[in-house]
Amino acid sequence: MGLIDWANIYRFNQACIKEHGNGDTRSLGWRDNNSQRLRFDALADIGDMTGHSVLDVGCGYGDLRDYLGARYPDITYTGIDNMQEFLTIAIERYGHLPDTTFLYGDFSNAILPRADYVFASGSLNYFNNEPGFIYRIIDKLFKTCNIAFGFNLLSDIAPMGLLVAYDMNAIVKYCQKLSPNVILNNSYAADDFTIWMYK
After folding, report:
1. Strand segments (E) across 45-156
2. Looking at the 3D structure of the chain, how many domains does it have?
3. What CATH number is attached to the domain comprising 164?
4. How far apart are the C-alpha atoms of 32 and 135, rounded to whole Å?
5. What is d(CA 137, CA 143) in angstroms, rounded to the nearest whole number?
């Protein structure tokens, strides 16, 4: 991610923290807790993660760790985010859980640890000046997974400059170039869709 894009996202997140307080779901850009939960629901059915490793890119407060841990015992979880304010809360909430690690860094440029399942929930919705950024990241994250990669994107937004909506069919078509097994779910929200990609 370029410096200008990072700075824009940082300012947006700082403004959300100022408005809602650090630790509030809305400070991550979600409308409310239910908005985040709907997307977690759509991602978590990707497969039985019991005993498997999970990488959560743009992990925010690490709430996906708690959600998946309640459904799938014995997961090994790694979350990465480039907002230290978010990671501080994530570590306070979930850092004590077994096999749980939080890393500071920009997942778009960092060398990522391989994991059985890789997730990006909400973290790919920001505008980026790099042409083809979304396709580069999908390719990178799919290569990082051993079993499957799940992510969600916006299909519609109120214009505000920082968030980006994507053509669902174009994204699916690209994913099918990388994986023989791509599943689309666009039934849980009017403005969002989730894709599962399997090795």
Report:
1. 53-57, 76-81, 100-104, 115-120, 145-154
2. 1
3. 3.40.50.150
4. 28
5. 10
